[in-house]
Structure formats: C-alpha cells, structure tokens
Design goal:
This protein is of the alpha+beta class. It contains nine helices and five strands. The protein has two domains: 4-111, Beta Polymerase, domain 2 (2-Layer Sandwich), CATH 3.30.460; 117-172, no CATH class. Keywords: Hydrolase.
Length: 177
C-alpha cells in the first residue's frame, strides 16, 4: 500500500521540504488521536507550485477538534476554519500557511483509510506505479486548470463524475476494496 510519508522522505526536493514542514509543525503527533494521513498531490509528485499539503483526520467530536486546531494553528498565516456539509456529511476544514506550504486540514467522522482523499491517492499511486508515463500528462492537464481527479479520468478515458469514476476504476482494478 502506498505510504505518503515514505514517498516524501525519499522523493524530490519539494517532497522532502514538505515532510520537514510536517515534522516541524508536529501536526501528525499533535493530532495523532484523530488518525491523520497526509494525502494529495505532493506525496505523488504530481503537484504544482501552488499545491497544498492535505492532511485528513477521523473526528467524531467536531467542537473539540476545532478548538484544538484553533489553539495549535490559529496564529499561523492565513488561518481559516469552517464547518460545512460535503455529500450530506459534516466536515471541518482548516487552512493555514507554514514553512512555505499551505496546509489543508480536512476532518470528518469516517476512518481516514475510508475517506475519499485517501482512496483517491491510493488509486492514483497505483496508476502511476503501473504507468509512469502518465505522470507528465497529469501535470500538464493540471497546469491547464484541471483538478487532479478529472485529469486522471481524462487520460484514462473515464467518463462521468471523475471522483466516483476514479474510485470505481480503483475497485475494478483491485487497487482498493
């Protein structure tokens, strides 16, 4: 299974700087009880300069989580915190800048290994492992304004909703259950 921290440790300069920022921020330890996982394009080496560092969390008490996040990171540059509904589920989203990276915290009441951000990353990692030549095509589409999942679906010829389509592709190919 794809391990984003290992990929970043042995990855390119930007990935290693991102891992250093994660470690200096101490976010994975400070919020360890919420089962954090680093996700997104930076661990996959398909990020753009403006790509953020995504960290997902499993939270069942949003009030406590919001207070902890506010206490730990509320003083950081461009800090925002909001609670909203996504696919009829409550989520907490926080953003801030630290050590040259924009962090995005995404928390919902679902095990992190079952969250879409993680599953998408696993599917994308498996696709890139099998077809390394797609990496530059994905980056090129992202530079043209595509989001990551639509870019993957474009190069793979997957029609329909790119977010569910990518998950279905992953299931059909045995990348995820």
């Amino acid at each position: 299974m794809f391990d984003p921290l290992v990929a970043m440790k042995f990855g390119n300069n930007r990935q290693q700087k991102a891992l250093t920022a994660i470690n200096e921020l101490n976010i994975l330890n400070d919020l360890s009880r919420y089962d954090p996982i680093v996700c997104g394009t930076i661990p996959l080496q398909i990020d753009l300069e403006e790509s953020d560092l995504d960290v997902i969390f499993n939270v069942n008490n949003f009030d406590d989580f919001e207070q902890k996040v506010l206490k730990l990171y509320g003083h950081l540059s461009d800090f925002t915190l909001e609670r909203k509904l996504i696919r009829a589920e409550s989520v907490v989203k926080a953003n801030f800048n630290f050590d040259g990276f924009e962090f995005e915290i995404f928390a919902q009441n679902q095990p992190t290994h079952n969250q879409h951000a993680y599953l998408h990353m696993v599917v994308q990692a498996e696709i890139l492992k099998r077809e390394e030549s797609l990496k530059q095509q994905i980056i090129d589409l992202k530079e043209k304004g595509y989001k990551t999942e639509p870019a993957f679906c474009e190069v793979l010829g997957i029609d329909g909703d790119p977010y569910s389509g990518l998950l279905e592709f992953g299931k059909q190919n045995g990348f995820i259950k």
